[in-house]
Amino acid sequence: MTTFNTSREIPATPEQVFAAISDPQRLARWWGPAGFTNTFSVCEFKKGGRWSFFMHGPDGHNYPNESVFADIEPPHKVAIQHVVEPIFRLTIALAASATGTRVSWSQAFESAEVAGRVEHIVVPANEQNLDRLAAEVLRQPDGR
Q1: Is residue 17 part of a domain?
Q2: What is the CATH number of the domain that holds 93?
Q3: Residues whose CB is less than 8 angstroms from the CB of residue 73 and which lie 6 or more positions away in sequence, other chains included
Q4: What is the pLDDT of residue 140?
Q5: Nearest to 106, CA basis, from 119, 91, 125, 122
Q6: Per residue of the chain (144 residues), what is the pLDDT tens digit?
Q7: Residue 118 and residue 100: Cα distance in Å, rounded?
Q8: Before 141, cis peptide (omega within 30)?
């Protein structure tokens, strides 16, 4: 298997969810697994735009990331191509649902071998990412 899929219902409109993805300040607050923070050096949220940042782990390590926003279709889809190891494409699809928005998260790795090596990290991390996205979308304007 090279692709990991998960989804989540968020009680907000697709536009509200998309806003939490497209705004670099908000994206920096929720991106990554639980306990991680981010420092963005470049976040060009446009098709073909670069995204360069460090994820700061709770273990004190800094993890460099380089990606390209491969496709953006407001407010329905964002595809991110991670261009350094491990190579993968993340597609986030947003669809209106009876309770708000269904967020579909699909992370496709270039190599089945790499996917197998990182599965134990990626599967829970993707769930934590969606937890953090939902919290950001539902966050009150005063930061609560």
Answers
A1: yes
A2: 3.30.530.20
A3: none
A4: 75
A5: 91
A6: 799 999 999 999 999 999 999 999 999 999 999 999 999 999 999 999 999 999 999 999 999 999 999 999 999 999 999 999 999 999 999 999 999 999 999 999 999 999 999 999 999 999 999 999 999 999 977 666
A7: 31
A8: no
Tell me how far apart the alpha carbons of residues 105 and 57 are, in angstroms, rounded to a whole number. Answer: 22
- Residue 68 phi/psi, 5° resolution? -130, 140
143 belongs to a structural domain: no
CB 109 within 8 A of CB 88: yes
Give the CA-trace dihedral at 127, 131, 137, 140, to 10 degrees: -170
Task: Tell how far CA 30 is from the center of its chain.
Answer: 8
Q: Which amino acid is at 43?
A: C
Q: Residue 86 in contact with residue 118, Cβ under 8 Å?
A: yes
C-alpha radius of gyration, the chain, whole number: 14
